[in-house]
Amino acid sequence: MRAKTPQETETQSRKLVMPDCINSGGSLFGGMMMAWIDKLAAMTAQRHSNSNVVTASIDRLVFLAPVLLGDHVVLKGRVVYVGKTSMEVRVDVWKENPIKGERMKCTQAYLTFVALDANAKPHAVPPLDLSSEEDRLDFEEAKERITLLKQLAIKQRKDA
Q1: How far apart, in whole angstroms, are the C-alpha atoms of residue 89 and residue 42?
Q2: Which of 10, 15, 137, 150 has a 20 to 30 Å separation from 99 between CA atoms?
């Protein structure tokens, strides 16, 4: 299986915030943003694994700034970590005011996907080619995050 760089499987999308996307506070529904992020991240994981994928977890989703009616939303996904059958995808999101030409990062999320074979069973994914320093740093940060999340899951099972 040939290793792939994060750049090879990057995905991007652009959305226009319309009235049906707005909550009663006048900004984009958080759930709408989550759906856009999940879809883009799934496409990123599919490009890396060349297979169907399933969302295993949304490990981190941070809303940094409100997104308003008429804003453009720019999403960019990239695989930052791979295990045997799983991939962690980071999605960075910016809001753009098309009138003023202003752009601001508004959201960042980390999602984990599992690659599935034709029988819907997990299967191995290609390794990640970490040729750049940025890629290596992203990978190391993801390893730390995954270790912490596993420790938290163990603690939560004991407390249940």
Answers
A1: 8
A2: 10
Give the CA distances from residue 15 to residues 37, 58, 67, 92, 140, in Å, rounded to whole numbers and listed in that order. Answer: 11, 21, 11, 14, 31
- Which domains are present in the chain? 6-159 (3.10.129.10)
Q: What does the DSSP 8-state code read for residue 69?
A: T
What's the rounded Cα separation, in Å, for the pair 137 and 133? 6
- Which tens digit of pLDDT belongs to each residue from 45-82? 999 999 999 999 998 788 999 999 999 999 999 999 99
State how far the Cα of 89 lies from the Cα of 80, in Å rounded to an integer.
6
To which residue do tokens 């930052």 refer? 80
pTM of the model: 0.91
